[in-house]
Amino acid sequence: MKELVMEINYDRSRLLYLVLSIVAALLFMFGEGAFLFFLLSLVLLAKSKVEKADNQWLRISGVITYLLYFSYIAYQVAAWFYENFLG
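-> structure tokens emitted (87 positions)
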């Protein structure tokens, strides 16, 4: 019976969510620019919970991806603020 028990590897699913999130963000940036792709990438990254991964490199890449996404959001907010109020 012990052979039938499958080992669950959560890092594989976290890696898959991270890759899908990056692909959705790239579709947003280089595609039509539909905000739905960027929203999808944020949801996928949040669902992956990559910061709880066992692999250190996966945790680092997830945190870097978080930083890139939120710095992009901050840049867009600053550009909008500059165009509408200061420019």
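The two ends are 70 Å apart (CA to CA).
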